[in-house]
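User: Sequence in, structure out. Go.
Assistant: Echoing your sequence, followed by the structure tokens.
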Amino acid sequence: MRTVVRAEGQTKPDVEAAIAALLNGFVFDRVEYLVPANMVGFELERGQGYEHAEGGVRLVGVDGEDRIIRWFHAGNEEDLWIGLEPDPSAELCWVPEVVSVEADSWGLTSGGETVVRSSVAWQEPCPGASTVWSVRLDLTGGSVVVCLGEQDYNSKKPIYMPDCVIVIFDEQVALEYHPHHTLHSAWTVET
């Protein structure tokens, strides 16, 4: 499932409902980051209240199914791809040859976590295109945001980058991260 709102009738509420159906109630006991193969062994970049997930995030389900959140960038379309397994034919639109590395920073409870509620933030990267750039996951043990971005070299704060994914653990950091072309902060809005 891609999250780009298309002219052929897919509306924002349709996309939000599809994402909620996929994520809400999902139980997972492990988190992996999708990292380009040439970055394996390098320490992940961490900032105050957030860290790089590079290519994306894999929530490893207790039932054997996974949920994946990756960046997708094709021309003017910049968004998060949210689904079960990526379409191999679209591999050129994101980081090729990613490998999973364990993300031990999520601090999951021993029984796993449940996505209680998910919400998205929209952006308009170009006229006429609305895409999802951030998804907040309200979990049994707190909230986390997965969004497009990276760490600014000088300020050490999140900045918008369509071909990188960061994970934000701090609500204030997510509220302050609001690129100019986005409709809402990374924290998203209540729906």
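User: And one key feature?
Assistant: The first helix runs from residue 12 to 23.
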